[in-house]
Amino acid sequence: MWIVVNLLIILYIYFMNKHTFALSVGLFASFMHLVWSIFVFAGWAGPILSFAQMMHFIDAPFTILPFSLIHAFSLIILAFIIPYAIGYVFATIWNKVHYK
Asked: What is the span of the domain harbouring residue 41?
């Protein structure tokens, strides 16, 4: 019985559901951009960006533009679509290479 369980675990590890993986990558990326949009709306983006630059030894003059709901919505949607497509392609390649 344990051989069957181990075989199922191995097959599960090697086979990747394309939609599920792409969805998780897309949702993670869009969530991170939603958080960034909230930081811009709250006025916290400037200090966070300055802190991140300081921690990476960067001194680049960036300015945070005023919050725009249309830009924030577009950012979140594109941050879902592009990583979703990349995740879907990655899972397809993974399944072709690892699942024979």
From this structure: 17-98
DSSP structure class, residue 56 = T
pLDDT at residue 44 greater than cutoff 60: yes
Confidence at residue 62, expressed as pLDDT on a 0 to 100 scale: 87
Within-domain flag for 76: yes
Give the amino acid at 84: Y
Q: Is residue 46 part of a domain?
A: yes
Residues 22-34 have pLDDT tens digits of: 999 999 999 999 9
The helix or strand, by DSSP H or E, that contains position 45, with its residue range, turns out to be helix 45-55
> Is residue 27 within a helix (H) or strand (E), and if so which, with residue range?
helix 18-42
How many domains is the chain built from?
1
In sequence order, the 6+-apart residues with CB closer than 8 A to the CB of 32 are 79
